[in-house]
Amino acid sequence: xxxxxxxxxxxxxxxxxxxxxxxxxxFDWLTGGDVPLDDSGxxxxxxxxxxxxxxYWDQIGVTVVGRHVFDLTDGWDGKxxxxxxxxxxxxxxxxxxxxxxxxxxxxxxxxEAAVAKARELAGDRTVEVAAGDVxxxxxxxxxxxxxxxxxxxxxxxxxxxxxxxxDAQHLLADPDVVAGTRVLHLRYPVRR
Length: 192
Hints:
Layout: E1 4-11, E2 15-17, E3 35-36, E4 44-45, H1 47-57, E5 60-66, H2 67-72, E6 86-90, E7 105-108, H3 111-122, E8 126-130, H4 133-140, E9 146-152, E10 160-161, E11 176-180, E12 183-189
Parallel strand pairs: 1-8, 1-9, 5-6, 5-8, 6-7
Antiparallel strand pairs: 2-10, 3-4, 9-12, 11-12
């Protein structure tokens, strides 16, 4: 069975978006290099970031997001981002009216059920959980194996927190650290 990884780009002060759900410069590192990260031609990173990020992205089978992110992205038009096989959406509401039932999106009530469904779909591949409120809930439930963050040199001051509303201490192991251009890639195994 694959790992469950909480992931996002994040400001130095711990935010994944500003108060208006805008990422600001958090993704600038994804377009500031010269090595294509995918086939789109849009994402170009430094060689160091490519080596780190591409290896991780190639392991992801399923992404878990909250309904808020799903709505902000318009459900990626029914196509999972980054060539991921499936998206599991944590929500108490049904799919949007007119949603294609054949799209590889699964609407699940509760984080435990969402992670169980994602693990089933991912098999031995990685389950990625978007940081923020849902990611914090999955961490609090003890279901996260690893925390990954791409720390970008910007201070937001306020906004949407990487760990959402987590209000208890969680110990992480020593980080694996890779310095890219305009980004610091951190990977922390979760201590059990």
